[in-house]
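Thread amino acids onto this structure.
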């Protein structure tokens, strides 16, 4: 599972590096968050097509996924592209769709896919702490866990959230019941990857697939200027060298339990420059 793709640098590094990485690692099924693929904000159909062509099976999303209105029809018809499942379903509170206005968020947040003789369910959820007041992610997880179990599928969760506390709580809530719970959204990879009791691979944040020397993906000069002046200068992706960040998870095909999780930064930048 991979962290948020940020702009053209993120798309390019995925296209350049991921096919060989997937082959080398023997990856059967790949999920990546694409909410920032469109120049840092949202995702377009053409971005999604490039991501699928690079070998990704499912694209998850987050608070930026619905930003580009042009993507709404694609989101509504492409089952391999998800947005968080716990967006409100207002039902009778709003009339049916009128002139392009949706009575609920376009797209879905859950799907069941086949790979390596397994049924794999992917669930995308969004957190509520310091974010939009979406529906309860825990209640949504419980409902979709049941749906996955009824289909004989094991469950991978992308929990797109700001709060470490909320992410760990969901991880432990699903420990032993989901195969993996991986956080996204902060664009900063955490070093707490582990297999939770009962065989659930967990990491608080997968990080980012995008420019390494940047401020969560954007050019440092603009980000620094924004911070100093408090003026909302437009953020643009940094042109610096990009990396893929995420985890490789080993899951038993029969039990659906995770046996290992390994954190990845590819290519590694640890040996850059001279000491
Ligand atoms: Fe993001
Ligand atoms: Fe986000």
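Threaded sequence (275 positions):
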């Amino acid at each position: 599972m991979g962290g948020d793709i940020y702009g053209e640098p993120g798309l390019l590094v995925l296209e350049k590096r991921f096919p060989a990485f997937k082959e080398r690692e023997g990856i059967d099924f790949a999920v990546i968050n694409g909410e920032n693929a469109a120049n840092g904000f949202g995702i377009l159909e053409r971005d999604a097509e490039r991501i699928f062509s690079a070998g990704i099976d499912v694209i998850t999303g987050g608070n930026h996924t619905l930003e580009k209105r042009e993507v709404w029809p694609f989101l509504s018809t492409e089952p391999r592209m998800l947005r968080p499942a716990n967006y409100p379903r207002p039902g009778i509170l709003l009339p049916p769709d009128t002139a392009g206005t949706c009575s609920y968020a376009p797209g879905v947040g859950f799907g069941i896919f086949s790979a390596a003789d397994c049924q794999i369910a992917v669930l995308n959820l969004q957190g509520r702490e310091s974010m939009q007041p979406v529906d309860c992610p825990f209640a949504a997880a419980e409902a979709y866990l049941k749906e996955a179990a009824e289909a004989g599928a094991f469950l991978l969760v992308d929990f797109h959230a700001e709060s470490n506390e909320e992410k760990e709580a969901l991880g432990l809530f699903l420990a032993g019941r989901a195969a993996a719970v991986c956080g996204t959204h902060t664009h900063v990879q955490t070093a707490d990857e582990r297999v939770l009791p009962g065989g659930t691979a967990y990491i608080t944040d997968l990080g980012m697939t995008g420019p390494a020397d940047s401020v969560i993906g954007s050019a440092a000069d603009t980000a620094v200027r924004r911070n100093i002046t408090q003026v909302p200068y437009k953020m643009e992706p940094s042109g610096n060298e990009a990396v893929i960040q995420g985890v490789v998870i080993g899951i038993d095909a029969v039990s659906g339990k995770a046996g290992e999780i390994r954190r990845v930064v590819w290519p590694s930048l640890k040996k850059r420059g001279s000491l």
